[in-house]
Amino acid sequence: RIQILFELADVIRIIMADPKHTWGYTLWDKYDRVLEHTETGLEFTNKCSHFIRDRIKVEHDYVKSLRNLKKKYKLKNSDGSDFDIDIRIANPVKNFRSNALINSRKTLSEEENFTTVKSYSVILDQLELIAREHEIFAERLEDDIFTKIRHLYKEVTNNRKNLCNTGNQLKQTYQQQQDQLEKARQKYEKMARESEAANIAFQKVNDDMNVSRAQLEKSRATKEQRLDIMDKAKGDYIIQIEKTNNFQHDYYLETWPSLLNQMQKVEENRVDELGSLLKQKCVLHKNTLPQVEQCIDNMIATCENISSTQDSDLLMEERTMANYPPDHEFIEFGAKPPSNFSTNPSMRKTKKDRKKTKIFGRGPNSDSMNKEDMDHLPPEKRKKAFKEKIKEIENKIQIELKARQGLEDILELYSKKPELGSATAMEESRQQIDSITKTLEKYQEELYKFQCYLAALDNKPAPEKPHIGSHLDTLSVASSTSHLSHTNNEDSGSGQGSGADLPPPYSAPDPMSPIAGEFQDSFYEVPDNAVPPPPNDNVCSVLYDYAAQHSDELDIFAGETLFVVEDNGTGWVKARRNENEEGLVPGNYIEMCS
Known about the structure:
The chain is built from ten helices and five strands. The chain has 594 residues and is mainly α. A five-stranded antiparallel beta sheet has the order 4-3-2-1-5, with no helix packed on it. Strand 2 (561-567) and strand 3 (572-576) form a beta hairpin. Helix 4 (115-207) runs antiparallel to helix 5, helix 7 (379-416) runs antiparallel to helix 8 and helix 7 (379-416) runs antiparallel to helix 9 (474-490). The protein is elongated and about 185 Å long.
């Protein structure tokens, strides 16, 4: 009741202020137009809420893209880990986000001390701050704007619905009053006609000399009865007219204008609130821009600190001045050359070796500066060092093989189903496969070289040269190493090896050498007591039927249960129905069981 009183007070205030500028005064006969206008306003409010929702999604996608960009191009240490530099940015932004420092406990190499590298790292860090600003903007849009607009839409919808119901009830009551008035009028007219007919009949009976007195009295009584009924109907009609007029007066001057004024108030409040929220959204966006602008200013400032002279000086500080080689002297035939004689100027010694480190990806470490044949170590330590080196290279080869296998599966999928990939994606996949193949060739050369060293150390013949093709067999690497390790274990107790000269390292793969399958059986044998791999406990449920189109695929049927053997993330999953049925199935045709 108190709320109704307040609403009536607001309506009265509007009417008293300027009654001609109210819907109740101007639009009392345009109720359908008022309903259409308010319905359009609700649709517009709902559209604004959808706009804010999609705007928030755009901001989240932008933040995700910025962070993926930073992650993709972040600098790496020589050991492959991320590195950061402790740099306090000039003119930091005056809030908690921009005062963040990028600390590091790692010792930076000489390459990472260059001004270009430092500036590049600062730019990436500022990208993270920009992403954070946009993320905060998206969160505030969701909390302060989107939630309130949805609440406004629901509130206005409920208020309009209630007012429309009230208006329908008022119109129904008004129509009932009009119907009652019409019924009273029709009744009065009917009674008046009957009274008039009774009066005419009485006059005829009264003028007829042959009518008896009893008939005359009966006709007079009927006339008087009809006259009384007509007078009563006439009174009811007059009362109903007065009642209807009073109701109509209240309806058109108070009740109906009040309803329209309440609808006007709801609509104006909706417009004001929506305008305030849209303005608040623009203010939030405006407040984000200075922070982003400050991050860009920091990028510009750090780029201005790039100095070619400073980088050159830093490079020169890494080395100390070495002496130039002495002048050549005439040496008599048969005479022994002096101890400091050298025909290769590049063999000059320096007091400090230059450390070759890289900031992107792999690079030689300090161990690679030693001699590859490790002849400065005792035989047993040399053998252990060779085995460790072989194991390290094998791990790298396995990683590259898995990466290339995934790309080949993707390329094969694109070839079978061109609609899943474009020509550009297929070309990029081929380029990546070629790059990985070159890397594999390099690793295979190094692996064969150390295998030769180890074989020579154990007085064994060198293994066969492996072959690297477009489809490198993983067993060629594993089998050669397994055979070599097995041979070494058999002869480990027979002797320590000799210090004889090691064979020259393998320089390049021979394109005419046999493929892996031709020499695989010569040194790779599966022992009889080998334990089969444990079964995969990953169970999946088939969602749709799929008919195998290639020999390595598996027919599946909706509703059946399979075991997932391998999922390499290419979109195709290796699954098994039983011991004899196993193959590839589409990853989007199955669902993992919880």
